[in-house]
Amino acid sequence: MNKKLLASAVIAAVAVPAAAFAESVVYGKMHTSIDNSDYDNGRDNWEVNNRSSRLGFKGSEDLGNGLKAIYQIEFGIRSDGGQEQEAGDGHTTLRNTFIGLASDWGTVIVGRHDTPMKMAFYASGNERLGDSAIDLNPGRNNPIGVFKEFRANNAIAYVSPNFSGFTVTGAVIPGEQSGNKATKTTTATNLFQKNSLDSMDHWSVGAMYKGNGLKASIGYEYLVDQPVATFRTSGELSRAANQKTLQAGASYTMNNYSLGAQYETTDNNEFIIDADYDAWALTGKAAFGNNAVSLIYTNSELDPNGSADDVDTDGWGVAAEHNFSKRTKVYAAYAANSVDNKKTGKDKDPDQDMFSLGMIHNF
């Protein structure tokens, strides 16, 4: 009898919160891979890697007259348990987390979110197997990536309604930290006192189109240099290395085949004065029933100081996937990247080849 009462109490305790959160949606993705990386310096290693697994909660409330409140809380989770073999390293990171209002006039959100340039990047349709070894954004576990993307804290963003396939978005991101705007001090080093930056520190815009098999987008981002400025003998502030990035891309799908291209150009790359960066990619995908094959080629060129000391990369990748359902798939991917550093006359980083077996489940 006591066991039955205890069971009933447990069921009741679980059922009450479920009813209380009935308007919320729980969602997520588990993405884990087994990777082998081979470097031309002889190093070879095997890893089990988490690939942007996540857990989220989102919902809305109807406020009347076509207006609704929206929210999202999303955490990144370590589906591999962490980088160390010891347990307990499966820490979380904060992903897109915001509150806002939505209506016929569009959506306004405040919080942590992908910048409009990043939103436009994904809207082009060129990310064929996201977060895998053939991901288009750089990282240790996706060696052929060459394109920038940012998720900004403190974002104030607007997304327009869809007009015949067109959508525009924009955001401003206050720096909320020390910056370059200041008055001269009396110290011998002639440094400037650091004052907080204004609401237009960083900004980003994007425009996207989807229709008739075509996906196309363009995005721009302006990020303000944050370090303390020094005082020149002329009495002027040191020139700020504000980073300016333009991205554009498009893909076209006809029946089961899709082709696309992506381009990026950046001035003052990584906030270094006169450092120019250019990158481009060609992508393709073919679907055969529950199976698909993707091909990626990427190229980048970094001119660090306006000289001939360029750093060039070439990468290519191929992936084959099998979809058990709309939510679950497995895949095999191969990616190879080479780096040519003209300043040193040798590779800046060892050339890398990666073979990856992965599984993705969305819920």
Question: Which terms summarize this structure?
Answer:
Porin, globular, 2 helices, disordered N terminus, mainly beta, 16-stranded antiparallel β-barrel, 363 residues, 18 strands
Verbal overview:
The chain is mainly beta and 363 residues long. The chain has one domain (28-362): Porin. It contains two helices and 18 strands. The relative contact order is 0.14. The model is unreliable at 1-22, 85-89, 178-199 and 228-237 (pLDDT under 50).
Helical percentage:
under 10%
**Distance between the ends:** 37 Å
Could you tell me the number of beta strands?
Answer: 18
Note the total helix count: 2
Percentage beta strand: over 45%
Structural class: mainly beta
Strand order of the largest sheet: 1-3-4-6-7-8-9-10-11-12-13-14-15-16-17-18
Question: Architecture, CATH level 2?
Answer: Beta Barrel
- Name the helix and strand elements from N-terminus to C-terminus, one letter apiece: HEEEEEEEHEEEEEEEEEEE
Instruction: Tell me which oligomeric state these chains represent.
Output: single chain
The total tally of domains equals 1
The major β-sheet equals: 16 strands, antiparallel, barrel
Short structural description:
This protein has 363 residues and is mainly β.
Topology:
Layout: H1 2-20, E1 24-39, E2 44-50, E3 54-64, E4 67-76, E5 93-94, E6 97-103, E7 106-114, H2 116-123, E8 151-159, E9 166-173, E10 202-211, E11 214-223, E12 243-254, E13 257-267, E14 276-288, E15 291-303, E16 311-323, E17 328-341, E18 352-362
Antiparallel strand pairs: 1-2, 1-3, 1-18, 3-4, 4-5, 4-6, 6-7, 7-8, 8-9, 9-10, 10-11, 11-12, 12-13, 13-14, 14-15, 15-16, 16-17, 17-18
